[in-house]
Amino acid sequence: MKKIEAIIRKSKFSEVKNALHLAGINFFSFWDVTALGNERVGKVYRGISFSTADIQRRYLSIIVNDDYEEVAISTILKSGATGEVGDGKIFVYDIKESYRIRTGEKGEQTLR
After folding, report:
1. What separation, in Å, do the N-terminal and C-terminal C-alpha atoms of the chain show?
2. Domain count of the fold of the chain
3. What value does the mean pLDDT take over residues 10-33?
4. What is the CATH number of the domain that holds 21?
5. Is residue 21 helix, strand or coil?
6. Quick check: 48 pLDDT over 90?
7. DSSP E strands: which ranges in the chain?
8. Which of 12, 41, 48, 82 is deepest in the core (most CB within 10 A)?
9. What is the mean pLDDT of residues 21-31?
10. Residue ranges of the alpha helices (H) in 1-112?
């Protein structure tokens, strides 16, 4: 099992969410975060200056069976990209075990 963490633009969340659902990944957690990036150049939008290094992002936490790892990553890469600086990052971790609290089951079947 793998844990995939992705930090993406809030504006791309709906696209990423829908693409993950179409790919068969129907359960994940997400929340709003503020991220600091490498870019220190400001942008002007409607006459207001702001820094693109310190803006709101959406953080996704996805646990998948090993056979869905590449599917999830490629889905996020395709649906979350704008081609601009600040599109985000993806991190992948190994998961040792999972348990379903309700039944006490453990292992990959807990993800179904």
Report:
1. 12
2. 1
3. 96
4. 3.30.70.120
5. helix
6. no
7. 2-9, 29-36, 42-45, 48-51, 54-64, 88-94
8. 12
9. 95
10. 13-22, 69-80
